[in-house]
Specification:
- The chain is built from four helices and no strands.
- By secondary structure, it is an all-alpha fold.
- The protein has a domain of 37 residues.
- The longest helix is centred in the first third of the chain and has 15 residues.
- The protein is elongated and about 75 Å long.
- The chain starts with 17 loop residues before the first helix and ends with a helix.
- The relative contact order is 0.05.
Length: 89
Amino acid sequence: NEGFLHLDISLIPSYENKFEFILWLAGFIERITTGGKRNPPSIRINIPTEYTYVNSFSTNSRKENDRKREKLMNGFKTEDFFGNYKKEK
């Protein structure tokens, strides 16, 4: 008896009212179906209580950011990164 859906036919709008019927049908299908794409749980819920997080961004100066960016880019230009790749081209 639990597997059956009890539906009051008087609540179904007339199919002549096209948009009202479509909205009702969409809501009905949503209620009786399971599955589909579900949203992942909030990340904040999974953070253990012993961990903390910071709501603000780093306040590095522009010069410090430029220096870090330059250091990173220079790392890609080294012989260790490219190896023999440049020589073969």
